[in-house]
Amino acid sequence: xxxxxxxxxxxxxxxxxxxxxxxxxxxxxxxxxxxxxxxxxxxxxxxxxxxxxxxxxxxxxxxxxxxxxxxxxxxxxxxxxxxxxxxxxxxxxxxxxxxxxxxxxxxxxxxxxxxxxxxxxxxxxxxxxxxxxxxxxxxxxxxxxxxxxxxxxxxxxxxxxxxxxxxxxxxxxxxxxxxxxxxxxxxxxxxxxxxxxxxxxxxxxxxxxxxxxxxxxxxxxxxxxxxxxxxxxxxxxxxxxxxxxxxxxxxxxxxxxxxxxxxxxxxxxxxxxxxxxxxxxxxxxxxxxxxxxxxxxxxxxxxxxxxxxxxxxxxxxxxxxxxxxxxxxxxxxxxxxxxxxxxxxxxxxxxxxxxxxxxxxxxxxxxxxxxxxxxxxxxxxxxxxxx
Length: 387
Prior knowledge:
It contains ten helices and ten strands. It is globular and about 80 Å long. By secondary structure, the chain is α+β, with helices and mostly antiparallel strands. The protein has helices at 7-34, 39-47, 66-79, 81-101, 104-115, 233-267, 281-314, 319-344, 355-364, 372-384, and strands at 121-124, 140-143, 149-160, 167-173, 183-189, 195-200, 211-222, 226-227, 271-272, 275-276.
C-alpha cells in the first residue's frame, strides 16, 4: 500500500509483533500490577536489535531507519506500553542524542552497550520545579579549578528507567544567568560517588517502566563526559525531543490499536436484546470513529518518520510533523481507550480485561515529552511564525 514501507520493514514489524504477542503480552499484567521492571524481556528486545534500531551496527545497533523503528515500537506497545516506553527512551532520547551529538569516544563507550541492550540508558531533563520551562532548572554543574571535571549538585524528577539505568544523559545549568543558553549536557555513570536514586514513583500507568527522582550530591563528572560545548544543552535536548515525540506517537498508536481490536472482537461476541451489540448503530459509530482516528494517526506518524529520515539525510528540522503526530496520536489513544471501555460496559472497567490498563497507559502519552498544550503551542508557532 505504501511504497516507502519495504520488505525489510515488514519483516521487522512481524518479528516485533510475534515477540510481543508471545513474550510480552502474557507478562504485561503481572509487571503492571507489581510495578516491576521487565528485565528479561528487555534484554531479549536488545538481542533482537530493538533497543537500538536506528543506531549503526558499528555502535551495537540494528542499523535500520525511522520507519522500522516506529513499526516495531507500535507493535511492542500494542502488547504493553511499558515495554514501549523503555524501548522509546533507549532509542529516541538516549541513543539519538549520543549518535547526533556525542564524540566518537562517547559513542564507543556509552552508546554501544545501550544500543545492544546490554545496559539501560536514561534521559534526565525535568526537575521538581521545572517541566516545560527548562530555564527554571535549579541543578548546577560547576567546573573544577583544575578544569578536569564538573561538580554536579541538584535533583531531577520523573526519570524514566531512573531506578535501573546504567547511564544517564543529564541536562543541567552551567551558567544560570543565561537561562536556556546556560544549560549543558553530560553523560552520567550511575556507579560513581555522589549519584543517588530516589524512591520509585507510584504511577497510574506504564507501571512496569520504572521512574524515579535522581539526586546529585557533589558528583564529579569528567570533562570528557560533557556532550557538546557548554551552553548547547537546551539545543541538543530540543532536537532530540522531536524524535522522541515520534516515538511517543507510535506508542500511542499501539495502545489505540490494542483497544480497538478488543472492541471489535467484543462487539462481535456480546449479545443484548437478541443481537450482537456490534449490530447496534451506536456501537457501529464508535467502531467507525475509532478506526478513522487510528488510521489518521498512522498517516501522521508515517509523515513524521519520513520527515525525520529526510532531515537526517539532507538537513533541516521536522518539529512540525513530530508535534502533529504526537498530539493527534496521543489524544486518539486516550479517546479510543475511553470508548473501548464504554463498548465493553462493566467488564471493561474490570481488571479481568487489559482495557483498564490501556486506558491508564494512554494518559501519559498526552503528558510526557511535551504535553498536548505544548504541542499545540509548537504547532501554532511553526505555522504562524509568531512567538
